Each structure stands twice: as structure tokens, then as C-alpha cells.
Amino acid sequence: MTSIANELRSITEEFFVKLDAISEGDFSYKALPNKWSKKEILGHLIDSAQNNIRRFICGQYETTPSTIVYNQDFWFLANGYQKGDSKEIITLWKLLNLRICDVLAIMPTENHSKTSNNGSDHTIKWLAEDYLRHLKHHLNQIIAGSFN
């Protein structure tokens, strides 16, 4: 998990600076009413971080993994990121990801293969790898060409 944590930390530090450099107009711009702005995409990544950090921690101690389902549409509406302060949203994204880095980095090796449930049982290691893939996908939507 150390390599995942290190990669996530590097991406987080790099993109914190890049995200902070995006103008407010560009960060909040919605091409269509039903499409997410860059700010809302980052908000979605915050929601994902919050749900996944719980999976990474609970999966280590629960003998029968509880189902931690992320209802994306409800979280999107409940958080209203489009109306939020951009600097706070960017900072929250950074802090949550750095916390995930620390959780993954100190996780005992024997817990990597324990399972957590996001609708299906997966190992914590698989969920961490999937979280990183998901993060890169959406950061590519915010800043095109960031990852191939």
C-alpha cells in the first residue's frame, strides 16, 4: 500500500497547486445545466474520498464487512458544491487525500487482503487501487491530458 499512498500523495500535492491556479470562472463553468462543473467534479472526488476512507478503516477491523454504499446522486445534491467556496473545496480535497495516504501507509500488510463492501466484497488493496484509478479519471476531466 505504500506505493499507492506515495503515488496518491504526489498526485495530491501536484494537483492542489494546479487546481488552485484555475480561475473561478473556469472552475465553476457548466457547459450544460446537467453537466458537472470542474468544481462539482472535485466535489464528487471529495465524496468518494469520504466513503473510501471509511472502507479502508472499517474493512481492517470488521469481521463481516458492512456495506458502505455511495449514493452519488444524493451526495451530489446534499453537498451543493457548485455554491461552495472554491478554495475551501480544493483544500478539503487535499486534506482528505493526505489523510487517505496516511491511513494506507500505516496499514499493516495483513490487512491489505481483508475485505470491505461497496456493494460487492473487494479487498482493501483492490479498493485503494480502484480509488486511485477513479481519482485520475476525474482529474483528467478537470485538467485534460493529465494522465494517459
Model description:
It contains 6 helices and 2 strands. It has 148 residues and is mainly alpha-helical. The chain has a single domain (2-29, 36-142), classed as Four Helix Bundle (Hemerythrin (Met), subunit A) (Up-down Bundle). Helix 1 packs parallel to helix 6 and helix 3 (38-61) runs parallel beside helix 5. The radius of gyration is 16 Å and the shape is globular. The two termini are 22 Å apart.
* CATH class category: Mainly Alpha
Within the CATH hierarchy, at the fold level, what is the topology? Four Helix Bundle (Hemerythrin (Met), subunit A)
The outline comes out as: globular
CATH superfamily: dinb family like domain
C-alpha termini separation: 22 Å
